[in-house]
From TrEMBL:
Protein's name according to its UniProt entry: Phosphohydrolase
Gene3D superfamilies: Hypothetical protein af1432
Boundaries of every HD/PDEase domain copy: 25-136
Species this protein is from: Fischerella thermalis CCMEE 5318
Taxonomic superkingdom: Bacteria
Matching InterPro entries: HD/PDEase_dom (IPR003607), MESH1 (IPR052194)
Hydrolase in keyword set: yes
Gene Ontology MF terms in the entry: guanosine-3',5'-bis(diphosphate) 3'-diphosphatase activity
Swiss-Prot/TrEMBL keywords: Hydrolase
Length: 191
């Protein structure tokens, strides 16, 4: 069961990301956070992992080290460590896109099981959103991504491979299924 801590994390995440929307879609960012938490819970997350799922982008997008310390103060070392493990970059300016993504993929290979679960839930929700938006927008979708079409497809396939190197799991299989479907749909349209 989820306790008041989860409720407090949801309120905090909603406040942190109140003025943020998903790239290109205008959907309130909290929808992504709820999606990631839902996926994580469906794949067996405990409360700390579910809280970290709600807060997984907070350090990266909403305040860096100060936000990390506030998460630690409010929700404990374990949640803060999971959030840290899911953080792509917490410096301003961020390193170049490809460098950040390669570092994240390398990090996945040695991540804790909690970080792997929350990260895979995040990447699965992102991949589902990309696939849905691609079906609506077609090629214009790729303009919203720094890596463009080739870079984005490379990144998600590399993530699938990295997650599988850490061991197979149902969430890895679902991520593989969605990424393969995305690749199939894009390749079909490229013909």
């Amino acid at each position: 069961m989820l306790s008041e801590r989860f409720t407090q994390a949801l309120i905090y995440a909603t406040q942190l990301h109140a003025n943020q929307v998903r790239k290109g879609s205008g959907v309130p960012y909290v929808a992504h956070l709820l999606g990631v938490a839902s996926i994580a819970l469906e794949y067996g997350a405990n409360e700390d992992e579910a809280i970290a799922a709600l807060l997984h982008d907070a350090v990266e997008d909403q305040g860096g080290a100060a936000t990390r310390e506030e998460i630690r103060r409010r929700f404990g070392d374990n949640v803060a460590a999971i959030v840290d493990g899911c953080t792509d970059a917490d410096t301003t300016p961020k390193p170049p896109w490809r460098e950040r993504k390669e570092a994240y993929i390398a990090h996945v290979l040695s991540a804790s099981s909690s970080v792997l679960l929350v990260s895979a839930a995040d990447k699965l929700h992102n991949a589902q959103s990309i696939l849905k938006d691609y079906r609506i927008l077609g090629e214009s979708l790729w303009q919203r991504f720094q890596g463009g079409k080739a870079g984005t497809l490379w990144y998600y396939r590399a993530l699938v491979n990295a997650f599988y190197q850490t061991g197979s799991s149902p969430i890895c299989a679902e991520l593989e299924r969605v990424v393969s479907e995305l690749e199939r749909v894009v390749a079909k349209d490229d013909r």
